[in-house]
Amino acid sequence: MSLLPRFRGRQLVIALPYAWLLLFFLIPFLIVLKISLSESVLAIPPYSQMLSFADNQLQLLLNFNNYLFLLSDSLYIQSYLQSLQVASVSTLLCLLIGYPLAWAIVHSRPSTRNMLLMLVILPSWTSFLIRVYAWMGILGNNGFLNNVLLALGMIDSPLQILNTNTAVYIGIVYAYLPFMVLPLYTALMRLDYSLVEAAADLGARPWKTLLTVIIPLTRGGMIAGAMLVFIPAVGEFVIPELLGGPDTLLIGRVLWQEFFNNRDWPVAAAVASIMLLLLMVPIMWFHHSQRKELEGRP
Amino acid sequence: MPDNTHNQDPLAGKATPEAFLEIQGLSKLFDGYAAVDDVSLTIRRGEIFALLGASGCGKSTLLRLLAGFERPDQGQILLDGHDIAAVAPYDRPINMMFQSYALFPHMTVEANIAFGLKQEGLPKAEIAERVGEMLRLVQMTDYARRKPHQLSGGQRQRVALARSLAKKPKLLLLDEPMGALDKKLREEMQLELVNIIEQVGVTCVMVTHDQEEAMTMAGRIAIMDKGRLIQVGKPLDIYEYPNCRYSAEFIGSVNLFDGVVARDEPDTCLVSCPELEHPVLVNHGQSVAEGQAVTIAIRPEKLQLCDQDLPQDDNWLSGEVEDVAYLGSLSVYHIRLASGKRIMATLPNRHRSHKGNPTWGERVSLRWEADSCAVLQD
């Protein structure tokens, strides 16, 4: 009898997060999917019902026009591609900046290590929006960066950085870098440094050791960091909206416009559904590679 | 005493043994503290040499200096006539077997052994041939495709050894080679490792804190303490002729008596110790002066049981058995002397019963040979 409550407690611990995901992820997603298969109408809510009952007939209406519309209009394909491109390049930049950064933190003295790690996390404690606004102040034509460069005489006229894709990249890399650094830090901390010494002992030069030993053994951290940057970056809205220019057409922005400007909920829902579908690919790959890594190590 | 059949020095007959590895005045400081302090050492070609010491004595730092993971603050390391102190680890013809083995977990056994050869840019066929040869040497051919985590501790050690021998290094370094194995496997692997190393003929420096391991495996031993070499010699020399208290106490058990040289003659010297009723006569060469304070060291197994007090006036003692520890093949007797000093004596258990061996509270007399004790001058 005494086993029963414990057993129930264990089930509860597992059931609670699943209930949470069901309630706040799966059901909303199904609602979005449902809306994407309806027609836009002038009503409240502004879409047609999927099920209708008239003349003793239950009618199920599945409208695929929204999806066909997305495929036929190059605007959407363009913005999907641009989103994927911005997210990929930002992820790569985060990796290139984050890896040496994480390495340096791991190899600093233990007393300074925690402080350096705090410095990486600290910006996340202030509002995301304020930090993006701060970048507007830095990158603007009359902003801090241009003023410094002008004062130093390095440029004659202000550089147009704000409202370009460059500003979007700067913003995304800045905002998501901690999400790259933390998993890399963990992976590099876990790395057995006698393996690095063993590689050197066997004649591998530093860069060869990096490629054949250090990178393969920290792959898990690299993939985890890449996912944490890539997935939110694909749907990022605030940064391109505030820092990007008129030619920065990312899917998050298109989604917003479709939803709030055009008030076309079904098309907006279709845009969101396809974005999720696109993100499933790297998530599945991540899952697969993690399972492989678990098999590789007992 | 452990088996020491391979302790015979192959170069003993030569007048000037060939110095293959020469360490001269080597020092390494960590935060102002000398981990290795002015060490000079000569190691011969083909020799298995052990650095023995307690943890923190600097033996591992010395090994890391040889491997190139640490740069010396002072001194030279001459390998086959070339100073390698400033050479990077990846350019040294030296390979190391790590204490944790440091096998690459993402590579198969084959790939681990091939790693060093690939760095040399050898042709594929040659690498494959050499890997096969190494796998046969350590009898791991059947496990070539396994990953390290699929191997037992002993198998991992074989792979680590094969990997460190694959490049035919001039010098092989072993860091606590048996540290990760359990006792039973340890004894087995000690002799096997020596066989493989001697088969290959590589000069080898090993680090260990286990005196039995050092005595079993090495031809010569250096005892280290506080970054300095205390004594260098063959296992027998170090055990039988310790040159100081530290080395006498570090290897095996020993009874120590403080005394003063009472009489000094060409071949013998007589030492009187306040803790002993009778003086100690030592008959092997000692350069001591009369009146000098020395320490007499007698190993517990050198003491022999006598039935009654002896007529002679030196080299014997008597006392009361205070404690007996039965260890199977022998028993350790803790004996309290009249002076209050407690000493240890080990006696073999020749009979199944305790017949003939003293027991608790019994008064015993013990004697020793004039050449079986050592005079320590520090």
UniProtKB/TrEMBL annotation, chain A:
InterPro entries: MetI-like, MetI-like_sf. It is a multi-pass membrane protein. Residues 80-286 form the ABC transmembrane type-1 domain. It is found in: Cell membrane. The chain crosses the membrane at residues 12-33, 84-104, 116-136, 167-188, 209-234, 265-287. Pfam families: BPD_transp_1 (PF00528). Keywords: Cell membrane, Membrane, Transmembrane, Transmembrane helix, Transport. Its main location: membrane. The keyword Transmembrane helix applies. PANTHER family: INNER MEMBRANE ABC TRANSPORTER PERMEASE PROTEIN YDCU-RELATED-RELATED, PUTRESCINE TRANSPORT SYSTEM PERMEASE PROTEIN POTH. Belongs to the binding-protein-dependent transport system permease family. CysTW subfamily. This is Putrescine ABC transporter permease PotH.
TrEMBL record, chain B:
SUPFAM superfamilies: MOP-like, P-loop containing nucleoside triphosphate hydrolases. Its EC number is 7.6.2.11. It holds the Pfam family TOBE_2. It comes from Zobellella aerophila. PANTHER family: PUTRESCINE TRANSPORT ATP-BINDING PROTEIN POTG, SPERMIDINE/PUTRESCINE IMPORT ATP-BINDING PROTEIN POTA. GO terms for molecular function: ATP binding. Residues 21-251 form the ABC transporter domain. This is Spermidine/putrescine import ATP-binding protein PotA. Part of the ABC transporter complex PotABCD involved in spermidine/putrescine import. Responsible for energy coupling to the transport system. Keywords: ATP-binding, Cell inner membrane, Cell membrane, Membrane, Nucleotide-binding, Translocase, Transport. It is an enzyme of class 7 (translocase). Gene3D superfamilies: 2.40.50.100, Nucleic acid-binding proteins (2.40.50.140), P-loop containing nucleotide triphosphate hydrolases (3.40.50.300). The complex is composed of two ATP-binding proteins (PotA), two transmembrane proteins (PotB and PotC) and a solute-binding protein (PotD).
